[in-house]
Specification:
- There is one protein chain.
- By secondary structure, this protein is an all-alpha fold.
- It has two domains: 50 residues; 38 residues.
- The protein has three helices and no strands.
- It is flat.
- The N and C termini lie far apart (70 Å).
- The mean pLDDT is 79.
């Protein structure tokens, strides 16, 4: 009987029957993953609320500096690609 049910699910395109232990395990993993994500965001919000204005300003300055470095790296790469193309022609 079980073999017949497996074949029916395989023919229908379902790899796992609805309500099976494997499907329940997957959905439990998704729920736990979401709860972990929500808890992290809540803790980040609490930490951000507790920070002083000076700490926030310093973080903004550091992030701006990192952005400038990344923009320079992208500009150098695109420039070197253009130079390489000129030599190929």
């Amino acid at each position: 009987m079980r073999e017949l049910a497996r074949r029916a699910y395989a023919v229908a395109g379902c790899a796992v029957p609805v309500g099976s232990a494997l499907e329940v395990g997957r959905s439990r993993g998704v729920v736990l993953s979401f709860l972990y994500w929500a808890l992290r965001r809540l803790l980040e919000l609490l930490v951000l609320r507790m920070r002083s204005e000076r700490a926030k300003e310093i973080e903004i300055l550091v992030l701006r500096h990192q952005l400038q470095l990344l923009e320079r790296q992208v500009a150098v790469r695109s420039f070197s690609r253009r130079i390489g193309r000129c030599w190929l022609r």
